[in-house]
Amino acid sequence: MEKYNKFKEENLSQNQELHFKELALIEPAATALVEKLKENINKNKYDTLVSDDVGGRLVTLLLREIIRKRNPNKNIETIFLAGGATIPRKDNEKYQIFLEYLKNRTQNSKNVLIVTQYIHSGETVLQIVKALKKVGIENIDIAAITSQKKYQEYGNDIYSSYRSFRLNKYGYEVNSLLGVLEEGEIFIGQEQSSNPLIENHQKFAGVDKIERNNYQPYPTTISKKIEIEGRELSTEEIKEIFEVKDTDSRRTILKKIADPQKIAKYQEFIKRPLSEKEKKEIKENMKLARQDIKILAQRIINKVWNKD
Asked: pLDDT at residue 70 above 60?
């Protein structure tokens, strides 16, 4: 597995070094996000953070560190959800497991902040908001480091938005993010088409989602994920296993990926458990990423509050 090189940002305050460039690159957007959340943090508003995991984990830890530093006596519940496409969309057995988990974890929650690294369509956080409403949570805000759109474009005018209402067997239901939030707010750091954490967040977080079998509403360790579903390979790793070259024709590629020996090699590779070296690297990356979170949290606090 990849171990990330240290990265020294050019103009970091106090010349502090971050271990991972991806975390350094989100600093401007994270600072902008905290600026927008500043008033609510000062008011000690949130008692619960709900992380759209796995991508939202480090962002959630960052915001939790900032909230705790600004409100040292604050007891803030942190819930890590297996987000994205893993969240059940239909009212079935998996959805009931999801709701039951949320209900048990939010028994003392009054004001919830959903945290994610990036909002594209808003569908994932929309499903989380709907589920929280179903288990009795009314006061919900959303925080994202980056977003594809301005927050107003997630359905502020729910009557004119094409995606605002959806016809179901019970009639029309509100189906826009701001429409479902009602009085809640969306806080976005910066508008960007992507986020530096998207590609590598599993390796920073040390956890992943069970996506195909044995549904669970929370993330699991990478070791357990591999045991249940196998490794997730990069395009380059797959090309290497099947000996695919950039110059190969489509017919040649199809022949190679149908080769029984190469298929057996692929199956063996994805089922291979983590080596001790890989486990050590994951553990070390998690440790270093959390050190970076503490550095970033203090730096953002200095920028947002110490200028007053």
From this structure: yes
